[in-house]
Design brief:
By secondary structure, this protein is α+β, with helices and mostly antiparallel strands. The protein contains eight helices and ten strands. It folds into two domains: about 170 residues, D-amino Acid Aminotransferase, Chain A, domain 1 (2-Layer Sandwich); about 80 residues. The longest helix has 24 residues. It comes from Natronorubrum tibetense GA33. Pfam families: RNA_ligase.
């Protein structure tokens, strides 16, 4: 599977990026590198920034929400009808779970598309095509701040980073791209100074009680019903874990966190059963 393209800082931008042609300015989001590819068998193959996983269940837990999102939303037939060989195409995205920026997780999708590699053409697709491709297969592309900006009139030194599309605050930065595949990033000054999240100093039981709330269970149970899916223990448990991971990944998986993740999952499982039992009793009553 094709590797992620490097995105240098603007001080190391490729030659002539800011001298000719037109630029697209895309929001740089604080996500985790994520890629996938449709195989001829119809199965999806996934990878993070460094590894590729032939078995989707082997993808690390923090990325499982992104795996499920792609599986549920990608229109395989639309992709097959658009290209001669689906395995020629590699999709690059950001898995949106918490690192340093606390996005509005209710409206931020699990996956935001950022790039598309075409092996047949031997190059990355231009940004306007990338946007259309992701929308065409049922996924949301990363948002664009400006389209077709004249390169010769763009001054990266005086550019002000806009507000993010995904929370009430500034974007982590901007990725500047042209149609020749050149790119560079401009980081918001705060992104260099932003402190990382604090580790969780609590027992697994306390952490589970904090994050696996009745409100979260109700929200996800209703969402499953609206999708026409049964609210079973396994399904609800997986969705709750994924939802918590997106919001609290950086704290739960912090190297100094007190939470043992196996115990945490067991506590969430117990709370899931308790919620479903109460829900069943309430329905029966």
């Amino acid at each position: 599977m094709k590797d992620f393209p490097p995105v240098p800082n603007v001080t190391d931008a490729p030659d002539r990026l800011f001298e000719e042609g037109h630029l697209w300015l895309l929001e740089k989001v604080d996500g985790a590198g994520f890629r996938f590819q449709l195989q001829q068998s119809g199965l999806l193959r996934f990878g993070d920034r460094n590894r590729v996983y032939d078995d989707p269940d082997a993808v690390p837990e923090p990325y499982q929400h992104a795996v499920r999102h792609v599986r549920e939303h990608v229109d395989r037939e639309a992709l097959r009808s658009a290209v001669d060989d689906v395995e020629d195409i590699v999709f690059f995205a950001e898995a949106m779970h918490h690192h340093r920026i606390s996005y509005d997780w209710e409206r931020t999708p699990s996956v935001l598309g950022v790039d598309v590699w075409s092996a047949d053409a031997g190059k990355f697709r231009p940004p306007d095509a990338v946007e259309a491709i992701f929308e065409g297969i049922g996924l949301e592309p990363v948002n664009v701040f400006e389209r077709e900006c004249r390169a010769q009139y763009f001054d990266p030194d005086s550019y002000t980073i806009p507000q993010s599309n995904w929370y009430d605050g500034p974007a982590e930065g901007v990725v500047v791209r042209n149609k020749r595949g050149q790119r560079a990033k401009i980081l918001h000054p705060e992104s260099r100074e932003r402190d990382g999240p604090e580790p969780i100093e609590a027992s697994a039981e306390e952490a589970a009680t904090t994050y696996a709330t009745r409100g979260r269970f109700r929200k996800l149970a209703i969402r499953l019903e609206e999708q026409g899916r049964p609210v079973t223990f396994e399904t609800l448990y997986e969705r709750v874990l994924e939802d918590i991971t997106r919001e609290a990944h950086a704290r739960l998986h912090h190297s100094q966190s007190d939470v043992e993740m196996g115990d945490f999952r067991s506590e969430v499982a117990a709370l899931t059963r308790e919620f479903l039992d109460e829900r069943t009793d309430g329905a029966a009553g």
